[in-house]
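Researcher: Go.
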Amino acid sequence: MFLLFRFFSHWPLRVLHAMGAVMGWAVWFLSPRYRATFRANVAQAGLPFEAARPAIAEAGRFVAELPKLWMRPHDQSCLGLVQVQGQAHAEAAFAAGHGVIFFAPHAGSFELAPQALAELYGPVTAMYRPARQAWLARLMQSSRLRPGLLAVPANLSGIRQMHRALKGNGAVALLTDQVPPEGLGVWSPFFGKPAYTMTLAARLALQSGAVMLPVRTLRLPRGQGYSLEILPPVVGLDTPPPDLSQAVSIVNQAIEALVLSQPGQYLWGYARYKTPRRETSTPAPNPATPAKPADDNGQTEKNKK
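Model: Structure:
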């Protein structure tokens, strides 16, 4: 499989994206479960299906571009493919002196974003969860450990490294719409429906005073490259500081805005509302007690009794 990735990494991006579009539609037609999840998530966001329809092909393009992004030589810059906007927001955030949290949802080329940000503002510390397959875990590790980019595991050690980075006015990068393991999140509204949401980003911001900057990374048409835009900082996390659940809700609202700004490149098939998995091997650093899972009406099991 490694050799196959290496083989496709030499193909032109426009060809990979064309192949990916075909793959995206093939999965759409072959998987009723995927179609149901996709349509349900789009409807929950209050969007017409046509607004999200391009995301079917974009999901395939995401997979097809991975060989090129992961196998790129470490001494070769990725910025030649990227149009960067909004750098003034990052410069102002670093000038504040408390570190920067770059964050994004599963939209656009979220695998490219940390690489580009590392070249611009490295070192950048990014958290990842190793794949279960040994070959894929090795491939992901080699691709993500790049000059200026420190990939840390999703455990207490990785969280401590993120704290150290922010304390030194460094940067971290997070996918904040991931469903965390049980005990590492709280139930918070996402497009009006309770979703198990990570507390890490909000806690880092509250404890360090770091500025949270949304990042939007879009694929350009016909394999012409990418657009990376750093958006204005999230407001409401500093004065007066909210409690953890309020802070998580603020982050979710920022993610909703990012998704609505690029509905054609969001992974609508991602099971955002799934029940978190148990993972007893990962310590839970969150001192707050997670809320009980809520049903679609927002009621917890405790409130029902």
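Model: The first helix runs from residue 2 to 9.
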